[in-house]
Amino acid sequence: MQTAQNNRKTQLTVMARNRWDKEDGPEKHIGFASTGSDAVIVGYFCCWYNYRHSFNLPSPTTLLQPKISDDNCTILRTCEKVDCLSMERFVHPDNLTHSMTDDEVLWRASMLPYKKGYPFDRVPKVAFMFLTRGSLPLLPLWERFFSGHDEYFSIYVHTPEDYEFNVSTDSPFYGRKIPSKDVEWGSISMVDAEKRLLANALLDFSNERFVLLSESCIPIYKFSIVYKYLIRSEHSFVESYDAPTRYARGRYNPKMLPYIHQYQWRKGSQWFEIQRNLAVYIVSDTKFHAIFKKYCRPACYPDEHYIPTYLNMFHGPLNANRTVTWVDWSVVAPHPATYDGIDITKGIIQSIRNKGEQCSYNSEMTSVCYLFARKFAPSALAPLLNLTTTVMGF
Q1: Tens digits of per-residue pLDDT, 31-84?
Q2: Which terms are listed as keywords in the entry (predicted)?
Q3: Fewer CB within a 10 Å sphere, N or C end of the chain?
Q4: pTM (2 d.p.)
């Protein structure tokens, strides 16, 4: 009996050796399974080792290695690199040539901290957002206006997509063009450009007030007056009114029901000024933007209705229902009057300042109702510069 068992073991061993010589697959590594549990473990380990290394798996440190880019900002590795993850870079981004899409920058700008206060010394700034068709012909006037007030303002410029915005390196406008797209007058792309400007300006947590301007706008007071007027205001300045005319209520589309009713419909000047929390609400909205994109088409102009209607529906108490940008609509035309060089006198600036009007400011009446004015042609630059010290105060 014992001899038979020994013969059987010898026979199995020979068979296993023969299989080892013939086989070239995974079975080769587990061929000794019948000889004992130790052989099974060794065979399994060999199979796993060959399988793992045949794919050249990267090490965990390689998998976690961040990608480094010098295009916009660089993760800190040496003292020669900029730390784009620092608190300073996060709350005060100084590089506007980012690669974020519209959806990405709108999403990031919509973030609102729940924690009260700021972990840094915050000086509230006014964001001046220029929506232009190209160059800024009145740029020297604005440069003089901003001079000496660097810590109290930020500048953002939106141009046609492929336009090269070239200014002197010592100008406050240098490097302030945001990623832009082409704008078609009277279309939703105008609203998209406004929201694009707001979103980029919101990335700087020091920006507290946001004013939209064009290349034909001018300031009619010195910077300190404009700054205090806006920063101290309890309200935003968005013209928002109802009128029973074809140019206002007549542009309402019943297809906007049930989300927007006619009694909620408002019209107003495109050139607004708003506080930070309202800017966050506007860039966060997708629902009503989609409705306007679908149903507000010429002769309905979204830039004259979207923000006035949206604020009227949800944030009316925060709005002064007036604009701080004066425009001459005395002419009967689709566009306001334009002032050329021959029109510029001391009297024109003084008349804009003192129209004999009274308006509400922080629940009190005041005669200072406008801070900016438009439209001024490029030929108006030289005479306007001559008035900065004698009339405008800068």
Answers
A1: 434 444 444 344 444 444 444 444 444 443 443 444 445 455 544 444 455 566
A2: Glycoprotein, Glycosyltransferase, Membrane, Transferase
A3: N
A4: 0.79
